[in-house]
Amino acid sequence: MLIMLFILLNVKIILFMYxxxxxxxxIWVFLMSFFVILxxxxxxxxxxxxxxxxxxxxxxxxxxxxxxVDVVYYGYFNTLPSVSLLSQVGQVAAxxxxxxxxISIKRLILVLDLPLVFIYIIRYGKYRKxxxxxxxxxxxxxxxxxxAVIAGMFIYLRNSDLFISVSNQEFFMYHVKDIKxxxxxxxxxxxxxxxxxxxIEELRExxxxxxxxxTAVGKGKNLIVIQxxxxxxxxxxxxxxxxxxxPNLNRLIKEQGILYFNNYYQLLGRGNTSDAxxxxxxxxYPSMDEPTYVQYESNTFYGLPWILRDNGYTSWVFxxxxxxxxxxxxxxxxxxxxxxxxxxxxxxTEEETVGFGIIDEVFYKQTMEYIKELDxxxxxxxHAFIISLTSHTPFKMPERFQYLDIREEYKGTxxxxxxxxxxxxxxxxxxxxxxxxxxxxYDNSVIAIYGDHFAISSLDKDxxxxxxDYLGYEYDLDEMMKVPLIIHVPxxxxxxxxxxxxxQLDFLPTILNIMGYENExxxxxxxDLINYKGENxxxxxxxxxxxxxxxxxxxxxxxxxxxxxxxxxxxxxxxELLDVKEYRHLHEKALSEINKSDYxxxxxxxxxxx
Length: 610
Fold this sequence. Notes:
Layout (H helix, E strand, L loop, with lengths): L1 H18 L6 H21 L5 H26 L18 H5 L4 H4 L5 H14 L8 H23 L4 H7 L1 H13 L3 H4 L6 H11 L14 E7 L10 E2 L2 E2 L2 H8 L3 E8 L7 H10 L9 H4 L8 H7 L3 E6 L8 H8 L3 E3 L11 E2 L2 E2 L1 H16 L6 E6 L26 H25 L6 E7 L9 H11 L5 H4 L1 E7 L6 E4 L3 E2 L3 H9 L33 E2 L3 E4 L10 E4 L5 E2 L5 H19 L8
Parallel strand pairs: 1-9, 1-10, 4-12, 4-13, 5-6, 5-9
Antiparallel strand pairs: 2-3, 4-11, 7-8, 10-11, 14-15, 15-16, 16-17
């Protein structure tokens, strides 16, 4: 029976390696898993207990289930999960439909056999010989031999350049390392890393407001920021069989007073949408341990809400879902928001929900009434941060909200579903903008609209093929992570498309330039995309491994095993593959920026910053 479980687990290791795309040092990765499994089962075999077959089954089941969780998580995030995410298990129910989309036969096969193995063991326990005898020497010697082999492999890997690659990909080594990192204080908390005086001064300089193009053109105006769920850049100006997918955004982009940033990227951590909010408002990199709103709920921050409050604004935030989701209710206090309008503050029926939240039309309509209340607080301008929801994955809109005529070949596909969802989101947003005009807010408010993150993954081979075929060009990481940023500035006699690269990290310095306010008490890692003339880069940590880089010209995608030399680089415009070794300086710069920001978060640096 133990031999059967050993064989099955090794088959699953091969499936795990396939699902998690192990591409380097495959033999070492497999051998380490092979001997760990053999050692564990040998230890169970050596025990002098009656029901060790059930202990073996428990080990087999635990490993199988953990592999299944790993490959499902990897299928979406392109990385393995961390034990730190156990605190977020309560969020799973809310995104159940999204998780269902990730459960395919190639992943389910890791756990489908468990009932059959369970039945077999029941029969095995009933019919096995009552007086099984094993050689005591074999029982003792086999685990010792296996342990010696594992120790020898570990020492060899540790003393070679293979360790990082293998430990980042091999099932058991990855999870042991992750648990160790979780429970043992890391270098930032131990004090081995410090921001130097020069680094602090450089960040201070970066944070200063300098006079330039469009500086203070929005000063004294209200600020309305709208984060649109899963709004990618590719639907902008896209026509599907002659049907305009985002007609309202397209029309807005052409108006006077509009700045359209078409080379703008998401920058997320473990918290997805909530991290898009955090990065946008604070110009800090997000956490990669837990959602930033959870891990650093009590930190001191000085981002957009606080800056505007110090300049007389009242700052409210609006979202049509439960207030505790992503820990928003608690985190928003230290983010600087003075009031949080959540699902419980809106009136709606069951028919007025899609997925797990209020439909955008109802949400925007009632939000307008709250904006009137916000405007009446005092004579000063206000700040409204609005987060939409309807265009959330898996994008399955009820038929009454499907306004596009989708060809049969795309019906039921993620592309067909997404086009319907984002078309609806655009329609609802268009009505809200018209309502702002009718109520007199449009001409007295700076309005910023951006997407929080991607909708369709280039990491899924089927989705990538579908998108590449439809768009007519390769749908890769750069296209996947690109979201639009559109800023309306009343009274601005210009219409400009800004194509220099930026990300949500750059929103705060860019909008502060327009509003004419300086970040006097905080630090920012982003750049003013309107005026900054130096080299800028995007350093994603999710969906691309930490150390990846996007610039105006190239994309460096870090290898799955975390080894820079195994990574790929290509020219974004020509798709030509490049020698990644020539761009190590960009990789190191990205890591340096992330580590500096991470230090600020981990040490609550802004609490004592002056």
